[in-house]
Automatic annotation (TrEMBL):
Self-association and partners: Homodimer.
InterPro entries (UniProt xref): Aldolase_TIM, TIM_sf, Triosephosphate_isomerase, Triosephosphate_isomerase_AS
The enzyme's E.C. designation: 5.3.1.1
Cross-referenced Pfam families: TIM (PF00121)
Gene: tpi
Catalytic activity: D-glyceraldehyde 3-phosphate = dihydroxyacetone phosphate
Domain of life of the organism encoding this protein: Eukaryota
A molecular function GO annotation: triose-phosphate isomerase activity
Family designation: Belongs to the triosephosphate isomerase family.
Keyword ATP-binding included in the entry's annotation: no
Protein name as annotated: Triosephosphate isomerase
UniProt enzyme class: isomerase
């Protein structure tokens, strides 16, 4: 099981400290991954407040290159240096607002996976795409870009958590029904079985976010 919380561009030092400490104080089964993703400026505070080895702190994004002259960006190496193990990649707000392409998201994921991180790889369609009956086409295209980068590597895919998050349900007050989410989950798992690994399709984690 996987439970994740993305703080996005929200919170203060006191807020992050108290909330992470509160979550960490609960007994988290070792079989469950609980992950929280504060903003970059709050990562150190979250790490310091985390007293549980079962609670993971994640970054909300990462750059597709290593250390270098990339003003305003953060490399995988920097995340690892902080002791982070998880990173969110391809969130719809990165794609829709920041103009991140499927190919860029996939390259970011490849770098993080190659360095041993767990990638929470987001997919999702807009309302117009859903109305045009292109839901699966859009979501699969986003995963196809990732497959192009990492191939059928069992080792790398084992560290991928697919987060289906329909764009039309994020921050809108409209939530996908269980049936809508399950339909996409089934379709993504079917794609994985046919295009990546039939055995692995039974184990790859596909979650809903919105």
């Amino acid at each position: 099981p996987f439970i994740g919380g993305n703080f996005k561009c929200n919170g203060s030092l006191d807020f992050i400290k108290s909330h992470v400490a509160s979550i960490a104080s609960h007994k988290i089964p070792e079989s469950v991954d609980v992950v929280v993703a504060p903003s970059f400026v709050h990562l150190s505070t979250a790490i310091a407040a985390n007293t549980s080895k079962c609670l993971k702190i994640a970054a909300q994004n990462v750059y597709l290159e290593g250390n270098g002259a990339w003003t305003g960006e953060t490399s995988v190496e920097m995340l690892l240096d902080m002791g982070l193990s998880h990173v969110i990649i391809g969130h719809s707000e990165r794609r829709r607002i920041m103009g991140e392409t499927n190919e860029q998201s996939a390259k970011k994921a490849k770098r993080a996976l190659d360095k041993g991180m767990t990638v929470i790889f987001c997919t999702g369609e807009t309302l117009d795409e859903r109305k045009a009956n292109n839901t699966m086409e859009v979501n699969i295209a986003q995963l196809e870009a990732l497959k192009k980068e990492i191939g059928e590597s069992k080792k790398l895919w084992e560290n991928v958590v697919i987060a289906y998050e329909p764009v039309w349900s994020i921050g809108t007050g409209v939530v996908a029904t269980p049936e809508q989410a399950e339909e996409v989950h089934v379709g993504l798992r079917k794609w994985f079985a046919e295009k990546v690994c039939a055995e692995g399709a039974q184990h790859i984690r596909i979650i809903y976010g919105g």
